[in-house]
């Protein structure tokens, strides 16, 4: 046996296998690659030291490939002196990765062989250029495939067709068309509660406490609930990159109008997004009777909740007003309950029909502006207008759309009262069970603000005359 043949026989090799999309989840693709690589190793007399398998991971996407990283580490440590793979594109679809691999193989004299592309001698200029050509072709194929897939995805979206795979969407069966009644009821409840003023966090907590689970059987958290309610799918609409572009082929669970209002509400920049639990019902609704500054919630040293007029860095108040939270909150709650049963309020909200008409008109305006924006994009795509013209025309359309969304977000205020006007007793019985966010939405639907005056000297009990409410009309 020649010295070269003896060296080949002593070579410890690492087998690397990878497949980008294992739809069946059975790893049969990488198993077939491994079998072919083992057959080649046996034919040339190489000893298989280890197998490195990245299943269902793309080399083009840029995501981490744990087994590939382990392979590089073992090659760098000298544990293996050769690599066997089914084809060069199993190792790399990125020129940057390939160059790093070439540098490593040169430094440690690693041999590379493939089942389909033969020997890659990275120690020679011709071998390296061959590897680079293979890499460039693999990159081209990946980019071309991604381009075709993107075009197909857009085509399906524009036609309102079902696209994609993976886990079924909540509310629909595995065919993505059939509505699941129990899940649809949860979606309708969640949508109506958010539009009525509930917070995402209180809604999510309630779903968890009731044992309502996600498609995978786990508990809900805030972000998935928000994603669900922002989705055009639940109102029978097709999305593409977050934009609703067509009516879908599956049945809706809520109305498109509700989706528009939910999107306006949940994407409103003025909406609270911090995770601190609100403990103050009237935060943001009270004003100082001396300087007009909005009161802030700040407990006393003994922990008693109170509202004060703030003074100091970042505040412009006078520090002249402070009032305990519980008595003023009880006063405002009683006033709200009283107003819910007054004929004046019922009469004012019979203008609810007018308010509904106004909301419908705002929705129509928003949809018209969305259509105009899309038409403008098509004009630019068809080279009927220049990029500068597209930018100039788009700006006023988007400004109008933002104004429409703000109006829709504010319109949700009245829906908090829908079931309680003329039924204050019902609300009184349910009040303590309502989440604080819903209580606040009900109060804010009626109360614009309340001005708090200074306390009289020597008076220690709560004085209702200090509070002057300004009710919404």
Q: Report the oligomer.
A: single chain
Mean pLDDT: 81
Low-confidence stretches are 1-10
Tally of helical runs? 16
CA(first)-CA(last) distance: 101 Å
According to DSSP, the number of beta strands is 15
Q: Estimate percent helicity.
A: 40-55%
Largest sheet: 5 strands, mixed
- Large-scale geometry: elongated
The class by helix and strand makeup works out as: alpha/beta
Please indicate the percent range of residues in DSSP E strands (runs of 2 or more): 5-15%
Strand arrangement across the biggest beta sheet: 2-1-3-4-5
Question: Would you kindly provide a written description of the structure presented here, covering whatever features stand out?
Answer:
Helices cover about 50% and strands about 15% of the residues. The chain is α/β, with parallel strands linked by helices and about 475 residues long. It has helices at about 5-10, 30-45, 65-75, 90, 95-110, 125-160, 180-195, 200-210, 220-230, 255-265, 325-340, 345-350, 350-380, 385-415, 425-430, 435-445, and strands spanning about 10-20, 45-55, 80-85, 110-115, 120, 235-240, 245, 285-290, 295, 305-310, 310, 315, 320-325, 445-450, 465-470.
Concise structural overview:
The protein has 473 residues and is an alpha/beta fold. The chain contains 16 helices and 15 strands. Helices cover 49% and strands 13% of the residues.
Please outline the helices and strands:
Elements: H1 3-9, E1 12-19, H2 28-44, E2 47-55, H3 66-76, E3 82-85, H4 88-91, H5 95-108, E4 111-114, E5 118-120, H6 125-158, H7 181-195, H8 200-209, H9 222-230, E6 237-240, E7 243-247, H10 256-266, E8 286-288, E9 296-297, E10 306-308, E11 311-312, E12 315-316, E13 322-324, H11 325-340, H12 343-348, H13 352-381, H14 387-415, H15 424-430, H16 436-446, E14 447-452, E15 467-471
Parallel strand pairs: 1-2, 1-3, 3-4, 8-14
Antiparallel strand pairs: 4-5, 6-7, 9-10, 10-13, 11-12, 14-15
């Amino acid at each position: 046996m020649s010295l070269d043949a003896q060296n080949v026989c002593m070579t410890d090799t690492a087998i690397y296998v990878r497949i980008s999309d294992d739809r069946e989840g059975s790893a049969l693709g990488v198993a077939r690659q491994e079998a072919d690589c083992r057959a080649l190793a046996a034919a040339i007399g190489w000893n298989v030291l280890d197998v490195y398998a990245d299943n269902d991971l793309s080399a083009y996407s840029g995501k981490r490939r744990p087994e590939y990283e382990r392979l590089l580490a073992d090659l760098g440590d000298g544990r293996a002196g050769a690599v066997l793979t089914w084809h060069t594109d199993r190792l790399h679809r990125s020129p940057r990765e390939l160059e790093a691999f070439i540098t490593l193989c040169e430094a440690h004299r690693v041999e590379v062989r493939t089942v389909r592309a033969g020997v890659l001698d990275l120690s020679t200029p011709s071998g390296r250029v061959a590897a680079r050509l293979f890499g460039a072709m693999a990159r081209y194929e990946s980019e071309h495939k991604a381009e075709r897939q993107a075009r197909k995805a857009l085509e399906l979206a524009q036609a309102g067709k079902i696209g994609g795979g993976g886990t079924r969407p909540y509310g629909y069966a595995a065919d993505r068309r059939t509505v699941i009644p129990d899940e649809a009821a949860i979606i309708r409840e969640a949508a109506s509660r958010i539009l009525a003023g509930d917070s995402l966090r209180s809604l999510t907590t309630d779903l968890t406490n009731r044992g309502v689970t996600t498609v995978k059987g786990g508990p809900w958290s805030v972000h998935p609930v928000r994603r669900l309610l922002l989705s055009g799918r639940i109102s029978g609409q097709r999305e593409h990159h977050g934009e609703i572009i067509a009516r879908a082929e599956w049945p809706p669970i809520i109305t498109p109008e509700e989706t528009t209002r939910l999107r306006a509400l949940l994407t409103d920049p003025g909406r609270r997004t911090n995770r601190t639990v609100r403990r103050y019902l009237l935060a943001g609704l009270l004003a100082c009777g001396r300087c007009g500054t909005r009161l802030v919630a700040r407990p006393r040293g003994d922990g008693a909740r109170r509202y004060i007029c703030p003074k100091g860095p970042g505040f412009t108040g006078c520090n002249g007003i402070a009032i305990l939270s519980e008595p003023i909150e009880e006063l405002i709650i009683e006033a709200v309950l009283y107003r819910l049963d007054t004929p004046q309020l019922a009469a004012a909200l019979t203008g609810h029909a007018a308010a509904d008409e106004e909301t419908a008109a705002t929705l129509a305006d928003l949809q018209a502006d969305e259509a105009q924006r899309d038409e403008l994009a098509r004009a630019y795509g068809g080279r009927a207008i220049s990029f500068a013209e597209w930018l100039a025309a788009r700006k006023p359309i988007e400004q109008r759309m933002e104004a429409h969304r703000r109006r829709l977000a504010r319109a949700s205020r009245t829906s908090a009262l829908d079931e309680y006007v003329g039924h204050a007793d019902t609300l009184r019985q349910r009040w303590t069970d309502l989440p604080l966010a819903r209580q606040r939405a009900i109060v804010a639907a009626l109360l614009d603000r309340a001005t708090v005056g200074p306390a009289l000297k020597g008076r220690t009990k709560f004085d209702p005359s200090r509070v002057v409410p300004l009710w919404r009309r």
